[in-house]
Design goal:
single chain
Length: 165
């Protein structure tokens, strides 16, 4: 359990940093940043997989069936993550200019709700797939692990993103 907490903290910290970082460097700095971001993303994926593996208690047969579903879930989740990063960057760009206009605030709020709805729909769509290969308790455990990681990421982001003015 202690390993889970440590790994989650590392994942959250690594996931939150790119979303809140402001790179105002030259094109060369942006290129290096992109390469660093790709390395960081790959490390996060590996660390997250270790957290899941350490906590799922899968049999060999379950693992053989589960990991391809896990990989597909993560691949599909990437588009939701990209939407979230874009929304945060859009908000940061507007916020850095001063007061957030009402229309932009409404647009960003609607996108935030749409992202949350997409994430819930995504989770729900994978439950039947997981139920085919895992007992219900392990399906619940996996969704709990995903929820905890996502909650920690959101907590870190919330602490870093200023309130609209």
């Amino acid at each position: 359990m202690k390993l889970l907490k440590i790994m989650l903290l590392l994942i959250v910290t690594a996931l939150a940093m790119p979303a809140i970082a402001q790179d105002k460097g030259a094109a060369k700095g942006a290129m290096a940043s992109t390469t660093d971001m790709e390395i960081l993303r790959e490390k996060i994926k590996a660390d997250k997989k270790l957290v899941v593996a350490a906590n799922m208690e899968l049999t060999d047969a379950e693992a053989k069936a589960f990991w391809p579903i896990y990989d597909a879930y993560q691949k599909d989740l990437q588009s939701i993550n990209e939407r979230m990063v874009k929304a945060i960057k859009d908000y940061a760009a507007v916020w850095n200019k001063g007061a957030v206009p009402n229309e932009k605030a409404k647009q960003l709020l609607n996108e935030s709700f749409a992202i949350e709805e997409a994430e819930l729909k995504h989770k729900r769509s994978y439950v039947p797939k997981l139920e085919k290969v895992l007992p219900e308790i392990k399906v619940a455990r996996y969704i709990q692990i995903e929820n905890k990681i996502r909650a920690l990421v959101r907590l870190e982001l919330a602490a870093s993103i200023p309130l609209a003015q």
